Amino acid sequence: MRTLKLVAVSAGLSSPSSTRLLADRLLQITRHRLAEQEYAVDADVVELRDVAVDIANGLVTGFPSERLQEAIDKVTGADGVIAVTPVFTASYSGLFKSFFDLIDPAALTGTPVLIGATGGTARHSLVLDHALRPLFAYLRAVVAPTAVYAASEDWGSGGDAYTEGLPSRITRAGTEFADLIAGRPERTREDDEVVPFAQQLADLRLGQAY
Does the keyword NADP apply (predicted)? Predict the structure, then answer.
């Protein structure tokens, strides 16, 4: 039986937080769907609030701490990543962006990613398409077709005749994400060897010289 590694990244600041709750529910649905397809799943959650100081120091010094490097390795070594952020000033949180700024731009190439966000009002739901999708497109990840935004009023709501309720959206997104992961070829050791950006740039310049 093939074992798949799933990692959920939660940028919630409080404990507990609606951001972590959404990440957990998306992870649960994805695991259930993969289990139905007879995959074993090794799941983990990276709470960015626990490494917030490490992230700030990493940005300033350019050298991640051991704890931060462990979190980065979990994300870059996963077969699928669930990334959920609270919304601040109509975009992802600074903590969320800073963490992904520390990841090598090529490290998530081809990795399936399911994006989600939480906020106080449904007006911020466009953050999924105007901020999160471009971020992971830049990182060359494969973003799942359905993303999930959860406003405060969505929790416990069953939706209406025109809008799916939050549980339905979570189920649909997690199911599509699981199918996307299952359809990807198994990662090889060579796939996990990330060439540092500085080396890629040096190789490019060398090629142009010829």
Answer: no
Q: Which helix (H) or strand (E) holds 175?
A: helix 166-182
Residues 91/125, Cβ–Cβ less than 8 Å? no
How does pLDDT run across 108-149, given as a tens digit for each residue? 999 999 999 999 888 889 999 999 999 999 999 999 999 999
**What amino acid is encoded at 120 in this protein?**
G
Fold of 3-209: Rossmann fold (3.40.50)
Under DSSP, is residue 112 helix (H, G, I), strand (E, B) or coil?
strand
Interatomic CA distance for residues 203 and 210, integer angstroms: 11
Interatomic CA distance for residues 59 and 138, integer angstroms: 19
Written as six digits, the tokens of 166 are 């939050």
